[in-house]
Design goal:
- By secondary structure, the protein is mainly α.
- The chain folds into 3 domains: 3-48, no CATH class; 61-251, Growth Hormone, Chain: A (Up-down Bundle); 260-322, no CATH class.
- The protein is built from 10 helices and 3 strands, in the order βββαααααααααα.
- The protein has helices spanning 35-48, 61-90, 99-124, 132-152, 160-189, 195-224, 228-251, 260-272, 281-287, 313-322, and strands at 3-8, 17-21, 27-31.
- It has a 3-stranded antiparallel sheet with strand order 1-2-3, with no helix packed on it.
- The longest helix is centred in the N-terminal third of the chain and has 30 residues, at 61-90.
Length: 329
């Protein structure tokens, strides 16, 4: 009779492997359950989920990825519709269109995008980490606005260059805000110093979704291109689904670090509590606004320049007296 030596698992949801000692002294491997189904599920888990899932990621990982998948699919569909409008506007299929004019339009569009990326990163780069959820939602709203502008371009061909540049400017902000906040959220999800693995598997999931949306786009584009009402109906439905899925995605994330909004909620609950109890991350994150900032009567500025603290030597002496124990160097 074979004797069980050990059982090997990696993560609480992995398929266990039993190692048995046979009568002749050799060691054999055995897996329980339906071998065919188990192999397929194991393959999908290895390809699309981080190693060690779910123990290697945050508890909100699955819910976030589900809603992220929904928003990515709907965004790809609207992107297909807007791309068709842009190609039509630039002259694809028009015998009178000039290749030189189309090239200049595309160069102006790319130049506007590059300038916008630099300007937006300079203006808002420092707040993308602390307010990752709010800026992630902002990026998706701007992305939908950009695609809406691109769809409108077919009605105003004389202003196509301006419309293309404005759309590109919006998408440049989407690229900066979306990329930076994705990195912040990936850092939150990774729990075993596996940020690269989580990011890579997120990319695989998004690629699969975009591939599925591509096939759907191949079916609907020939139909929608001949019907303006159908095009705008699809765009409206997919945009609503996209925004709703993004809102659900960012609101399900439970950040365990403090920003100004979460700190304000935490202190407010502590001061208003009869027993001076501290709220947990789930309670604080559920009340964190992801669209507007909390209104705060007292404004705190961190890391301000020296000249805003002391305008004279008297101001400096008063600051030093009231903070004599602090080490400023």
């Amino acid at each position: 009779m074979d004797t069980l030596i050990c059982r090997e698992t990696y993560g609480s949801k992995s398929d266990p492997r039993d190692y048995l000692c046979k009568n002749d002294g050799t060691i054999s491997e055995s897996r329980s359950g339906n071998r065919g189904l188990s192999s397929i599920l194991h393959f999908l888990r290895v390809v699309f989920l981080p190693q060690g899932y779910p123990d290697s990621v945050s508890k909100d990982y699955l819910e976030y990825q589900i809603w992220d998948t929904v928003q990515a699919f709907s965004s790809s569909i609207t992107g297909t519709l807007s791309t068709h409008a842009m190609l039509k506007g630039v002259g694809v299929g028009d015998e009178s269109a000039s290749a030189a004019a189309a090239t200049i339009t595309w160069l102006l569009r790319d130049g506007t995008s590059m300038t916008g990326r630099i300007a937006f990163a300079w203006y808002q780069g420092s707040s993308l980490d602390s307010d990752a959820k709010r800026w992630r939602l902002f990026a998706d709203i701007m992305n939908d606005a950009a695609m809406c502008i691109e769809l409108v371009s077919v009605f105003f061909p004389q202003y196509f260059v301006i419309i293309a540049c404005v759309s590109s400017l919006f998408k440049s902000m989407v690229g900066v805000a979306g990329g930076a906040t994705r990195a912040a959220l990936t850092m939150h999800q990774a729990r075993r110093n596996n940020m690269a693995d989580v990011s890579a598997k997120d990319g695989s999931q998004e690629t699969l979704v975009n591939l599925a949306a591509l096939f759907v786009g191949l079916i609907i584009t020939p139909i929608a291109s001949k019907n303006i009402l159908l095009t705008w109906s699809l765009f409206f439905l997919c945009t609503c689904l996209h925004l709703y899925a993004n809102y659900r995605a960012v609101t399900c994330v439970v950040m365990e670090t403090l920003n100004q909004n979460r700190f304000h909620i935490l202190v407010q609950d502590y001061l208003h509590s009869s027993q001076f109890s501290m709220s947990g991350p789930d309670a604080v994150n559920s009340r964190e606004p992801v669209i507007w900032r909390l209104s705060r009567p007292l404004k705190l500025n961190l890391g301000v320049p020296f000249r805003t603290v002391a305008q004279s030597m008297r101001d400096l002496e008063m600051c030093l007296q009231s903070n004599g124990q602090e080490k400023f160097c």
